Amino acid sequence: MNSKHLSKGARQLSPVRKGKIRLYTNRFCPYCQRVVLILDAKNIPYEIVNINLLNKPDWMYDKSPMGKIPAIEMDNGEVLYESLIIADYLDEKYPQRQLHPKDPLQKAKDQLLLRQFTKVINALLKSIHVGRVDNDEAEVITEGLTTFEKELANRSGPFFAGQKPGMLDYMIWPWCERSDVLKMFGRAYILKKDKYQKLMDWRKIMMEDETVKKSCCDVNTHIKYLQSHRAGLPDYDLLCFK
Q1: In sequence order, which residues have a C-beta less than 8 Å from that of residue 212 and are 6 or more positions away?
Q2: Annotated catalytic sites, by residue?
Q3: Predicted confidence (pLDDT) per residue in 103-142, tens digit
Q4: Which of 56, 185, 215, 221 is a good FRET partner for 101, with 20 to 30 A between their CA atoms?
Q5: Torsion of CA 221, 225, 227, 230, to 10 degrees
Q6: Does the pTM of the predicted model rise above 0.90?
């Protein structure tokens, strides 16, 4: 996970080893973390190739349109990109520990919730980019979290999937992991436990999940990375092994 991010001029990679999946990713990209979570949750053999998003290797554009990540390359040379597409493919291709609900209706409802969560993601990204949380973004974030708070209260266990994390849990986790970065904007934006009790409890037990532990970063690391990103020099190798 913390290997050096490859940049323009990096040598062409050897073919993917038989029986493995190669993930083209970035250590601090939440969309990429989605795929890491699914690979780890299902114990799928894979290898990581970290990519510098500001200075991508030339060959990355041959792998994925516009060099988009996350992307996975199979041992037959086939490549998929887009986090939700990859997650759905992996869940169907590798049936061990099915992450989507078996009930088609519940699966559809969870996918609708994911679409709604995209609004929260966009509001968070905009706030981080401009360095403040405007009223419009605050309203979107509040409405979205309130919806998920109520939804979690109606579920049959501590996770959205019930007694252990499932697809919905893992697909929203990367942004929930980063939620404490809101404290960069002052105490007024720290999420209130009394308002989102269920979500806060969910977040706490998610952090104890063995799958989550493998890719999780602490809030101070996320803040350091975001500060470097806002300064125009994102430190992708902040956690690089020396």
Answers
A1: 37, 165, 173, 177, 206
A2: 29
A3: 999 999 999 999 999 998 888 878 776 667 777 888 888 8
A4: 215
A5: -160
A6: yes
Could you give phi then psi for residue 73, rounded to 5 degrees? -120, 125
Does the CA dihedral 175-68-27-49 come out positive or negative? positive
User: 70 with 25: CB under 8 angstroms?
Assistant: yes
Least confident of 48-52, 125-129, 204-208, 222-226: 125-129
Per the prediction, the chain carries an average pLDDT of 91
- Asked if the model's pLDDT at residue 188 lies above 80, the reply is no
Distance CA(175)–CA(104), nearest Å, equals 26
- DSSP for 8-23, written as a single string: TTPPPPPPPPTT-EEE
Tell me the per-residue pLDDT of 15-37, one tens digit each, with 9 for 90 and over: 999 999 999 999 999 999 999 99
> Whole-angstrom Cα distance, residue 193 to residue 228?
29
Q: Would strands 46-50 and 21-25 be described as parallel, antiparallel, or unpaired?
A: parallel
Q: Which residue type does 185 have?
A: F
Q: Are strands 71-73 and 21-25 parallel, antiparallel or unpaired?
A: antiparallel
127 close to 135: Cβ distance less than 8 angstroms: no
